[in-house]
Design brief:
There is one protein chain. The radius of gyration is 46 Å and the shape is elongated. It has a two-stranded antiparallel ribbon with strand order 1-2. The protein has 24 helices and two strands. It has 478 residues and is an all-alpha fold.
Length: 478
């Protein structure tokens, strides 16, 4: 019996259960030497040393060693695998390697449970461990391929591949999975030995997968009783593949060139169609904008800036497109503000509704620009651009100006909350007053929202919106 050096109390990375009832006890005087050795707990004591100590004093030292392994195994909690078919020493060695085995548990289970047709196990302990070491990772990844390989039969109906051949084939499992037609051929052509099978997969797997029909041609042209049948079959398959690919490459190149030309033309046509559509859309948009510009008396920002600059430089009156003349003091305020906040001025002038109607006409723009510091930029207009069902502006010009003086985040929050209220309906003037008074009311912590919903005994709202604003400012909550 080949017994390696074994430590009694070495953990080996295992989870041991403490069970004082399972300790090995030797009762006879001749066995006392062994029992005392165990009680000493010397970590360097090996099973072989135990065997030598007991050899002259005990009639069956092998039995003592078996009891030793059984005792050590009883300390291990291992419910993952059924190890009943293995000896106590074999179980011990499996437990000793359990960390490695747990990396690929499906593989280990498949190996130790594999059986022959007569219900005997295919692999003994040594073969099982060797096969696991050689191909455990691949078996764990492709258990079905492993099953097909170990169950393959030769032409006489006997097991076709031994342990080492199984391991060698499983190390090619990625190719067997990638080329199922070639793998099917390997299993069905029993004249191929294990080395032929490996070469068959590596050398012709891709070819058979791409051109399955060349396998039939090769099988018909290579006699099965010929010498080196596997090598000849592989050579024939390679030749047939090259013959097809040379012709195919030429045809593919031609088709690829035609396809590339067609794709380029289609892309150019598509790009041109998009460009035409964009141009048409821009043209239509510009036409709508021009129509609105005439209706509202609006001029673009660049023209307005140039107009103001000219009047200041030449000291001439600032005359609107309608013929109205603005006071000179306003003209100089406008020029100064344009110089100070050009981007802000441009955004306000260019602000439009979704239907492209300008928010402000030329006169409105000049009035806003004359006191531009009082306004926020029109980058984020939000619900200021809201229109009615008839596509008319929801707020009038005066209201839009007032709302543009409210910080955008506060303005958008209030408008969303009260414009679409499911209970009390608010007029546009009321909405503007609420928005304007947010800072004074301390809105986010104020009782305003509760006050505007209070009703009297006749189910009428108890306070007007202005009264609710005033009460909130005064700190009144009812």
């Amino acid at each position: 019996m080949n017994i390696g050096k074994i430590s009694f109390y070495n953990n080996y990375g295992m989870n041991y259960k403490r069970n004082t009832d399972n300790r090995t006890v030797f009762g006879s005087r001749k066995e006392k030497l062994v029992t005392d050795g165990i009680k000493l707990g010397a970590s360097a004591l090996s099973a072989s040393a135990l065997f030598l100590m007991a050899k002259n004093d005990v009639k069956n030292p092998e039995k003592i060693i078996d009891e030793y392994y059984a005792n050590e195994n009883s300390r291990v909690i291992n419910a993952k695998f059924n190890l009943n078919r293995f000896s106590e020493q074999e179980k011990y060695e499996i437990n000793h390697r359990i960390d490695d085995i747990n990396l690929y548990p499906k593989a280990f289970r498949a190996i130790i449970n594999a059986k022959n047709e007569d219900n005997t196990y295919k692999f003994d302990f040594q073969d099982s461990m060797t096969l696991f070491d050689d191909a455990g990772e691949e078996i764990d990844k492709y258990p079905e391929i492993f099953k097909q390989i170990i169950n393959a039969k030769d032409k006489d109906g006997k097991t076709r591949f031994n342990r080492d051949e199984c391991a060698a084939l499983m190390r090619q499992a990625d190719l067997l999975k990638a080329y199922p037609k070639a793998f099917e051929a390997v299993l069905s052509i029993t004249e191929l030995d294990a080395e032929d099978c490996r070469n068959f997969i590596t050398d012709t797997g891709a070819a058979i997968q791409e051109f399955p029909f060349i396998l039939d041609e090769a099988l018909q042209s290579v006699p099965k009783d010929s010498n080196s049948y596997g090598k000849q079959l592989i050579h024939t398959l390679k030749r047939l593949f090259l013959e097809r690919t040379d012709k195919q490459q030429w045809e593919l190149k031609k088709q690829r060139e035609i396809a590339e030309i067609a794709a380029r033309l289609a892309q150019e046509e598509k790009a041109q169609a998009k460009a035409n559509a964009r141009a048409k859309k821009a043209e239509a948009k510009q036409a709508v904008m021009e129509e609105w510009n005439k209706k509202t008396g609006w001029i673009n920002a660049d023209k307005l800036f140039d107009k103001v600059k000219d009047t200041v430089t030449k000291n001439t009156p600032l005359i609107l497109e309608t013929g109205e003349v603005l006071p000179d003091e306003i003209k100089y305020d406008i020029a100064a503000n344009i110089m100070k906040w050009p981007r802000k001025a441009r955004n306000i002038i260019n602000a439009r509704y979704k239907n492209l109607q300008p928010l402000f006409n030329e006169k409105d723009c000049y009035e806003i620009l004359s006191e531009l510091e009082s306004y926020y930029s029109a980058d984020n207009l939000g619900l200021l651009r809201h229109t009615t069902e008839d596509d008319e502006p929801f707020f009038n010009t005066k209201q839009r100006k007032e709302l543009l003086k409210v910080h955008p985040s506060n303005r958008d929050f209030i408008l969303r909350k009260y414009m679409f209220s499911a209970t009390r309906q608010y007029s546009t003037d009321e909405l503007v007053e609420i928005a304007k008074n947010i800072p004074a009311m301390g809105f986010y912590r104020s009782p305003f929202g509760k006050l505007v919903e209070l009703k009297d005994e006749n189910d009428n709202y108890k306070y007007t919106v202005q009264e609710c604003i005033d009460k909130t400012k005064n700190g009144e909550e009812s």
